[in-house]
């Protein structure tokens, strides 16, 4: 990253353990410490001593200290966090797009793990796993009853170790074991295709280290197949975020050079910064700017950006920048509303502290925190309406969430009732056969919002939402 950046190191905007974050990883410790409240520290030491000597059974001293730090940081807001050795490793894996495992995209079906797709070239791909395969056992553990995250943890492990998966292949009506050797997997965060002649779709599932290079390659591939592109859909639905420099780069791919993409503001001097659409603001390493390979037409091709309640942080930065500069039409539902910046400082070789240090703002100065990006065109997720969006947690739903800093929040008192109705619909939907369910795969020919985005690009009528309510719409900006 360029020396011009005042916030040094690694900046990410993403999701970790369900908490959507904007993060700056600094490798340099703070030069000075704030004065310490001695009386309170004496109380802390007294409590530590009492627990150690008087508790019913011996306690681990290190665990007591770690839990005290975790509790102190967690009490601030939903996104500040102390990283122990294990969680720090998981955090770095999440932003690098690399992990050790078998290499499958998965979901849940009837309490089992369903293979959505094996990652091309991965151990699972070479072992012959197919989409729609169901995993019933991981080694000797029955999958039924496990959460998806627990199943993932059991399939991941150390490089060059084996895991045995018991597979049920429905179309062959048989179960069989497959032993797979784990290895480092590189996830693919960019998908895309020509939907029909002249119109293309590119989906970003997360902003990772390789996202910009993968995005450039996908755009080159699309333009090679259809050099006369007349419209493009950038799909950021359910994209929880990731690296901030990747978000700045994706924005810069569509915007004029040197315009503002996003700004940050907080108590620290280095947290007050403006990121612009120029290489020094998104390139981490020396070398050629990957965006220079993009077709010139990408700067002017008509653009629609798809967002929903699951679009957060880095996704909101991109959508906000393209909306404010009137470069794209934003279509879909109001986004998550994750607009705070966390700084991650290593506390040692394998532990760290993630602390909220700033809010970020769109080019026009709007805070996204606890509000989100409001689309130019509100479109439901299906023709029947926004069936399940109310079930998704947004930033404003999180306990102790940071306020926007631009006026009071306005809550919709009817939302809890609507959420209960949506929960019942979701339960009914889950009981239906897969072919009859109303929520098709994103990017498919039955993807309602994508079809509306193509209509928008063609100048055809769009089926706008008649039911969506914008949260905090009466929020007033304070100078």
Write a concise keyword list for the protein shown above.
479 residues, alpha+beta, Pdz3 Domain, 2-enoyl-CoA Hydratase, Chain A, domain 1, eight-stranded mixed sheet, six-stranded antiparallel sheet, 10 helices, 22 strands, 25% helix, 25% strand, globular, disordered N terminus, disordered C terminus
Helix fraction, binned, reads 10-25%
Total strands: 22
CATH topology of the largest domain: 2-enoyl-CoA Hydratase, Chain A, domain 1
Unreliable residue stretches:
1-31, 474-479
Number of helices: 10
Q: Which overall shape is indicated by the principal axes computed on the Cα atoms?
A: globular
First-residue to last-residue Cα separation: 32 Å
Main pleated-sheet profile: 8 strands, mixed
| Mean pLDDT across every amino acid position | 83
GO biological process, one term: signal transduction
Region (Disordered): 401-440
Keywords: Hydrolase, Protease, Serine protease
Pfam families: CtpB_N-like, PDZ_6, Peptidase_S41
